[in-house]
Design a protein that fits this description.
The protein is α+β, with helices and mostly antiparallel strands and 147 residues long. The chain has helices spanning 13-23, 30-36, 82-96, 111-119, and strands at residues 3-7, 42-49, 52-62, 65-73, 101-107, 123-128, 138-144. It is found in: Cytoplasm.
C-alpha cells in the first residue's frame, strides 16, 4: 500500500476529524480543524492511503519555533512507519519555514508517545500540572536543532 504525505487542505477536514475521534479523548471539533486551514501559523501534514486520511500531524509556527498541536495515526496503521513519516514531514516543513526548535505537551501517562518523541530527539523539559484535567499532567518536551 502506498501512503502519500502532503499539507492538509480544507477538503481533508472531515477525514482528519475522523482520525481525531478515533485517537483522542480530548478531541478538537471539526470546526477547530477547519479553522486550522485558514490559520497562518498552522502547518498540518496528512497521511493518505487509498483516498482515506489515516493520520495527521500539525504544528503552529511561533516566530522560529514549531509547537506541535497533535499527531495521530489510526490503530490499523500504527507501528508501520506512518507516524514517523508524518514527524519527518513536520520536521522538514518546520526547517523549511525557518524554525530552529520544536516543542509539545504530551500526557504524562502516554508512554508510547513519550517514547516516540524521545526516539525523535526530544527531551523532557518540564511539566504542566493538570494540563489535561485534574490529575492529568503534561510533560513538556523540546527538540533543538531540526536537521
Amino acid at each position: 500500500m502506498i501512503v502519500h504525505y502532503r499539507l492538509m487542505e480544507s477538503r481533508d477536514v472531515p477525514g482528519v476529524f475522523k482520525v481525531d475521534q478515533a485517537c483522542f479523548s480530548h478531541n478538537w471539533t471539526q470546526d477547530s480543524y477547519q479553522a486550522e486551514t485558514n490559520n497562518i501559523l498552522s502547518n498540518y501534514i496528512v497521511a493518505e492511503a487509498e483516498g482515506e486520511i489515516i493520520g495527521f500531524g500539525g504544528f503552529w509556527q511561533v516566530i522560529d519555533e514549531a509547537h506541535i498541536t497533535n499527531i495521530a495515526v489510526v490503530a490499523d496503521y500504527r507501528q508501520t512507519g506512518v507516524g514517523q513519516n508524518i514527524m519527518n514531514a513536520m520536521l522538514a516543513r518546520a526547517l523549511e519555514q525557518g524554525c530552529v526548535a520544536m516543542t509539545l505537551e504530551v500526557r504524562g501517562d502516554n508512554q508510547p508517545a513519550i517514547n516516540f518523541y524521545l526516539k525523535n530527539q526530544f527531551t523532557r523539559e518540564g511539566r504542566r500540572k493538570d494540563y489535561y484535567g485534574p490529575g492529568m499532567d503534561a510533560i513538556i518536551m523540546w527538540r533543538y536543532g531540526l536537521e
